[in-house]
Amino acid sequence: MTAHRDGLPEDKVEMTMMVHALVDGELDAATALAVERRIAADPELAAEHARVAALRVAVNKLPKPQPSKAFLDRIQAIGGTDIQQAPQGSVLPFRMPSSQPRTERSRWGWSARSATFDWRALAASIAITAVVASGATQWVMTGTSDDFAAAVASGHRRSLLAANPVDVVSSDRHTVKPWLDGRLGMSPPAPDLIKEGFALVGGRVEVVDGQPIPALVYRHNEHLITLVAQPRKGGEATNPVDRSADGFSMVSWSDRAFAYWAITDMERSGLDEFVTRFRAAAAI
Amino acid sequence: MLNGEAQARFSQVVTPHLGDALALARWLTGSAADAEDVVQDACMKAYAGIGGYAGGNARAWLLTIVRNASYTWLARNRPRDIVAVGDLNDLDDMSAAHRDQPPESESPEASLIAKADIAALEAAIVALPEPFRETLVLRDINGLSYREIAVMLDVPMGTVMSRLARARGQLMSDLGRAR
User: Are residues B59 and B21 in the same domain?
Assistant: First the structure.
């Protein structure tokens, strides 16, 4: 092969990639021109160029999936709800009548039809389906802090089902805290308790009552613990209160800066140990 | 971010790209019905994370979330289909080894490729090894740039180019064979 002095690769495979890049419009004008010159002088490259262009013609004939009306409704129910009609204060995601049919598809139907449910309810409906499927009973709660507990629970369940339980993956508190600070302007204590058997997995932002609040995720053996920290303006510290229900263990307590809600599918005793360790580490 | 603001942003950023999201999820999971569930899951993540969307290509942003959701879905539903990272590197080595093979004596004809029917093309795409299929779909079906794909897959741009050339080579050889 004679050497070209156009700065393009001499290697045939690499030159083939340049032909692909030309078809893809990835080359600047000067490089594109040089590649075209090579193609003009080399029948093999010219054949490759023709094939790549032909493949593009073929691929463009593939039908593009169009979102169906039903699917669009499902998606728009996530973000498109008219907030004017949404109830003020807490949305109780679990206020679903038990007679509600829960076939595979209808679970989305009510979310899309009913303007009073926002995306959190939609998210929670997945959790409900999972819980119902597992034979557990519904989690019905009333009262302000219980609404909050239900929302925290739904967030935890959603995270177990969602793509990733955390939005920032890190066992390093020096990563998690600034990440939360950057998004929310605050962050709770985030001690890594790995020596105690509770590894910090990362953090995420939960939305409860329309307010974004920080959540930390810890792992203990195969179990995830979600720790939601609701900022508060002073007030007395409170000791842990058991809020377990429905197969999940939940404990809430508070210090002067945050009200904490820890939820997991572990045994209560395991969660109690986590709470003790966390409080000890956070108090330092 | 206020709720209404987030919702407006979500509709604006996510809705135009749902077709692309479904296409990617469909090719990664292998099923149109599963793709809807995966995309819905991804959209919930996208809504929750809309505050972190810093502008730029909204399609690439959404597709990154869809890709993650697809693999999470696959890990849960079809653990055996997942290609581990180690395997992926082997695959790149393998594709490098293929470079040294002489070209096939009968080169596929461009006219046959252009006339390939949809079923044959779909079958050929399905048959691609996963990293090649993913790169091909992101470029040729979703229309992302090399750089956007490199960022999404966290690989060098050269790897994107080599996977793409290899994926297309495979398709062209499948479709160009006279039947």
Answer: yes
